[in-house]
Amino acid sequence: MEYKLATEEDRQRFNKFVADFDWGDLLQSFEWGDLKSRSGWIPIRVYAEQSGRIVAAASILKRQIPRTSRCIMYAPRGPVLDTHNVELVNSFCGFLRDLAVDHRAILLKIDPPIPIEDTTSETNLRNAGFRPVKTNGFGGTQPKCVMQLDLDKSLDELLASFKPKWRYNIRLAQRKGVTVRLDCTKADLRPFYELLVETARRDGFLVREFRYFEDMWDCLVPPGYMRLALAYYQGEPIAGAIAYIFGNKAWYVYGASANQHRNVMPNHLVQWTLISWAKESGCKWYDFRGVSPRRDPRPDDRLQGLNRFKEGFSPRFVEYIGEYDMVIAPGLYWLWSFARPRVQAMLKLRRKLEATSEV
């Protein structure tokens, strides 16, 4: 077994290994590391090779901790390897530990998209030195629970599998004259972003700055890994979505809609358009991304409306094993994972109280 640092010359074969892997995710691609490098992360791509063939890979993001010589390391939706192969898991994870030590990391975080039912993989990762991380209901850095629509049927059969109201809403949008463009250019990012900001204000969530979406376009569109869909009504954009595609898998990642004209159901038609695109692109499933867990969901969960929207397309519910940390420096890990969040919460509360007292 040979362990190597991937260079630019390895980009194509590294990406092919990840894309062809059963659950290989775009977040483990070379291009995702390129994207995150524009916001302060340092990508480190490594792989294991046996008889000239890649058998394991990890695209790791490194973030320096300010005013220290230490860092944190994170392999989003990685590492990518046969987690049932005990020998491979132990050897590759041992290599990753050595890499983390060399970079003076305090932890290496992973969250491979392994179903929670796969107890063999979970046990192997634990035995290789990873410990589970407790997260909130939605998940940690990446969603723990998702919904995936299997695309192993014809388009007509897929449409027939949707809930009746969803089929009706798709046809209603078409009858009302809503059209969806998939040939968007970078100039179309601005109207989409304005819709996203409008959605965020309405539904109470935060949005990244526009520059991030421009960077995302620059890194992911040229290799064909991202598609923007915009819905128009009476000549105006009223809804849109961004989807990723990598290998034979597609993900819906951002959705937006205007406050007006919601009665013409543009979001349903946008999703149907992207599902059709994913099917025609040869994808095996279309991932609706994060949803709340089914086990003991909170009655006041603000995501329930989003969950119901996704459920209308009759996807299957998938729960992953979640986040796992390999602890490199136990004392610093405790400060980072437990003490730091509590101090930050106390400072936030203090600022809030001080602001209130000044009124």
What does this structure look like?
- With 359 residues, the chain is an alpha+beta fold.
- The protein has two domains: 2-134 and 321-357, Gcn5-related N-acetyltransferase (GNAT) (Aminopeptidase), CATH 3.40.630.30; 153-283, Gcn5-related N-acetyltransferase (GNAT) (Aminopeptidase, 3-Layer(aba) Sandwich).
- It is 39% helix and 25% strand.
- It is built from eleven helices and 15 strands.
- The strands form two sheets. Strands 1, 2, 3, 4, 5, 6, 7 and 15 form an eight-stranded mixed beta sheet that branches. A seven-stranded mixed beta sheet has the order 9-10-11-12-13-8-14, with helices on both faces.
- Strand 3 and strand 4 form a beta hairpin.
- Helix 2 (30-37) runs antiparallel to helix 8 (210-220) and helix 6 crosses helix 9.
- It is globular and about 60 Å long.
- The N and C termini lie far apart (66 Å).
- Residues 352-359 have low confidence and may be disordered.
- Per DSSP, the total helix count is 11
Largest sheet report: 8 strands, mixed
CA gyration radius, whole angstroms: 22 Å
Strand content: 25-35%
Number of strands: 15
Helix percent reads 25-40%
Looking at the overall shape, the CATH architecture of the largest domain is 3-Layer(aba) Sandwich
CATH homology group of the largest domain? Gcn5-related N-acetyltransferase (GNAT)
Output the structural class: alpha+beta
State the shape.
globular
Residue runs with pLDDT of under 50 for 5 or more positions: 352-359
Average pLDDT over all residues: 92
| Number of individual domains | 2
N-to-C span: 66 Å
CATH third-tier fold name of the largest domain? Aminopeptidase
Order of helices and strands: EHHEEEEHEHEEHHEHHEEEHEHEEH
Write down the CATH class of the largest domain. Alpha Beta
